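Sample pair:
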Amino acid sequence: ARKLRVASPFDYANMAAIYVPPNMPKPNDTNHIRSVSAWVEKHARSLGGRTLVLTTTLNAMRQIGESLTASLGHSGELEILVQGQGPKRRLMERFRAGASEGGLGCVLVASASFWEGFDVPGQALQLLIIDKLPFPSPGDPLVKARGNRLQAQGKNAFSDHSLPEAIVALKQGAGRLIRHETDRGGLLIADNRLLSASYGRRILAALPLMQQIAQTEDFWDALVNITTASTKVS
């Protein structure tokens, strides 16, 4: 068979930066959601919205949405959109419009279906925050059955099923950031297992080759530089 491999048109190294906060509470820590909310509030305010938050659970989505509504929404600084407030199409259209039509800048907090099939080309999305690595729930009956089957075959349920599933889901979520050759932005993954766990390097290697930032201040500087370039391109 004749094969053709076509390279991506996206120059991720100059279009996007990725940051994993090293001091973020562990994903199962009760303070994790509060810390994610604080990160979103700080950066979304600085960007005038233009922020998408993808969560792995509906509980995290609701708590982050409530926190941001209390801190940014009620004050009239930004419009906080949360999945479930209305039809998905209306939320997507409002987020894409952002402040371009004289309205407030937007922050969209979502889960589930927003991890894929949601395109926001242009400047309406410049910061994507993912709360945790999207591992399949170990309590799901289907996940248990697949794990048991792999173990019966002498394989490892985590490395042969849960980890590949998480990598695919994370790539889909991260893919919301860059949808056009002129898009620019930053990706923050608030899960320090990417830095501490043995499988973290494997997951990072599966993502597009964005600038990898080690310090908080450097991430913000990179984000400002990248988004400024986006404005000039546009």
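The chain has a mean pLDDT of 90.
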